Amino acid sequence: MGLRTIHLKLHNPSTLKRNIIESAFLNYNNAFNYLLKKAFEDIDKIESQYKSPKGTYSTLTLSKWIDKELSAKINKFDIQPFKDSLKLDFGMTLASYFVQKKLKSSMAFPGFKVEGVTSQDKLRPIYFCRYDIKRSFCFLYDSQNDKFFAKLFLMNSKNAKIRTNIKVSRELNYISKNQEEVKSLKKETFIIVPLSFGKWHENMLRQAINKPEILRTAHLIMKGNDYYLSLSIDLPEEDKVAPTTYLGVSRGIEKAINYTVVDMDGNMMESGTVEYESTLARIDVKAKISILANKLVDIAVENKSMVVLQNLIGMGDKLSWVEENITYKPIFGCKHYNDLVRVLEYKLPQKGLPVPAKVSSVDIFHRCRLCGSNTKKNRFSKTMFICTTCGLSYNLDSLGSINLATKLIKYENTPLKLKAKKTYDGIYLQNELIGLDLFVPRDENPFERLKEEIKKLSTIDDQEYSSICKLNPKDINNIIAKLIKQDFKNIEII
Amino acid sequence: MSLYIDVNYESLNKYKEELCGDKVEIIRSSDSVVVVLADGLGSGVKANILATLTSKIIGTIMSNGLDIDEAVNTIASTLPVCKERGVAYSTFSIIQIFNNGEGYLVEFDSPSIMRLRKGKLLEIKTESRIISGKLINEARFTVSPDDLFIMISDGVIHAGIGQTLNLGWQWDNVSEYIQKTYKKDSSSKAVTKLLLAACDSLYSNEPGDDTTVVVLKAKKPVKLNLMIGPPIDSKRDIEIVNKFIKREGKKVICGGTTSQIVSRILKKEIKTSIEYFNPSVPPTAEIEGINLTTEGVLTLSKTLELLKTCVSPDSTMSDFLKLNKKDGASELAKMLLEESTSIYFFVGQAMNPAHQNPEFPLNMGLKFKLVDEIAALLRHAGKHISLEYC
Question: What is the pTM (predicted TM-score) of this model?
Fold first, then answer.
């Protein structure tokens, strides 16, 4: 799934086109207001008659409440160009109202004006429910000048534009399956407006030139004196990439974001920080996070990485430092780091990489990456780590990211813990997770018996597993396979 | 009260230098140990010569009962003058600890010696005087068991300077680190290794200066008695076992048959321990009154391997950390190397046919070879070793 919304600005529409757009807004809003008024009078009946047997409400079904008679009545608002869209928009609004009313009985009905909507009111966006070169909306492309245009059907035949000159000033083609040439008509019920947008949006529109099926619905939005087309576009997912490295991304006390790439054995390959250029210091935080996220995605794609992030929801990482009564806090607060996480969670799958893993980071700035010693004593200063067990020193910011990067490898290598109880006659060995419950008489080798029993466990069927152990069969088989692969060295007696 | 002084030192050469400009001299006599750390001016050959002369002269003079004045005067008149710098200069620090617990230290232009008691820094109050134009600090004090003394050269103070730490590690931070890392049962070698590993890491493995750490640990003598193999004459089993049990100190038994003999004679049960599962080392057992009971040849072989690694000059901190593992070989190696000051071996000469090596003469077996190697290694590490064949 790659459905996302992008905003394209209508570039400098002329006064005539502005007037057409403003009329369309008023018409659409008054029609919508009228429908709401009518629905309100009949709401209880609608609520009961349009409920599905499962108790749910669907947009399409609710839109059918607008019968032929009502449909003809709303023609007075000149909404013929977008009547289908209006009906669906109305259906969506009612469906949403009924769902929320179920959760909260005091939910208010959507507001409407008794006397009608004026240009002074806050206007609802115009919904275009389908991409179509003959109705609703579509895009045009001038390949010679590399420009994009939107074609918006906003008028009915009654108030259509009459062209005196049907000569075309530029060569335009539809962004459609057949890429037909655009021809001017004497009577036009649409406007064509150039679009302006950033590089990122341009990249997506270009994909649509060859794959117009990715263009879905749109909303025409008014913001101040400007108009935007809010387009839903279904971007194809990149081919899935099998990760061959891990990329740990941590926040720091000197640098905002630090990263380390390790191979599957935990050996460091690359390490550094990601920053935005100082010239961009004045841009808002959201934009900064987006820039940082894009850089991290590039690194992850280049290294085919499984990204590992800090889980800072409900738990901290003890990165702050107090020295001589001054508290030094990380550059990125928890909120901003979590915002970065949310952005990465959708950007990485778009590039075919797995959804990033979020892991506990309570120890990443205190645990030695060489010997595993985990104590606060290991932190020497605000920026320096010196292990009190093996002497390894490390820059604190870098340590966080490398510990993150190797976390999943450590989880993978965590030993299987066995409960052991000695008696006069022998020894009991137990592990509830894999359903192990073994007694070894004193005259037998407990290790050899254990190996035999675990190998036997790997052959029992799934149904038997569910009755004797806590984990699902797939997880159990993974654990047993790991034990066999490491020749049972990864066992710990407790 | 007689003390055993466990001494160890290690150095890092300045990056790209073949010779170290720091020199350590350790001289043990019947009643004391003298340790001298000298740091020659500059680096390389010249510094090495200066430091070697300084440490040798001081060590020899003081271990022969002469005083520091004599040593300093001799140095002043002996050290060669550098043609480039026009001076003959080497810093030094000296500790002399007597078996009866008396201590004496002297410092000249070197970082102050650190002293820890129960893990806390204990200030050494020094008095200054001038000898041959040199300002000398000296102190006399009493040494208690488990007191730790750390002598460091400038390279430790400056570790990381301009790289990982702007101002270097600095004396206060070094002493704080040593207190943080203090463990009562750590040997002087382990402390030396740890401190030097930290310096090397701070220097990003390219030391900017010769770096030396010397650690002295005062210990009450800890005796260990080790019984390996059954006596050649089974009629002597009771005699040997009783002799073994009556000896002062810790008791370790190596070998299945040997443990059964001890168990039978003492009328104590053998319980196989399952507290540590390591497929490469046979499990240990428990006999009441015995500190450690292990399997025989396989465990001894692994123990020897661990000892060789730890005693080697190339050993690292991670090698020492392996001694903390719970298998029989690691536990035995730790007891021999880190905990004991003198070890008494009872070596049973009964042969186990399964252990015969055709390359050795009939009167040698794998077991004896292992024992000899272990004993030699421990002797080299400063332990008092005794062997009794039975």
Answer: 0.70
